[in-house]
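TL;DR need structure tokens for one chain.
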Amino acid sequence: MAKIMSDKGSKSSAKASGLLKGAISRPAASVRQGSTPRGTVSVKPAGRMRTFLREVRIEMTKVTWPPRKELLQSTGVVIIAVVIAAAYIGVFDYIWTVIVRAVGLG
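>> reply
TL;DR here they are.
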């Protein structure tokens, strides 16, 4: 019969040897000298606006824009789904209106 090793033994030995230390602990953040920490907002409104627009520009470079054909297909699917949902809700609204008026509640 083969000897079955438990996970506890392997984890504790790995922990003791320091193999899991890098996976568990985070490295210390580097501090930039002479600049404000990232994420701070300027007190001046113009500074905040400038920071916002700079961050918007950075995020817009990360966007993957779909090709025109894919965009039109996706737009068509959304419009059709909205029309179907509107018809579905409209039919149920009409049915409930008829039921409420027949019972005399409305």
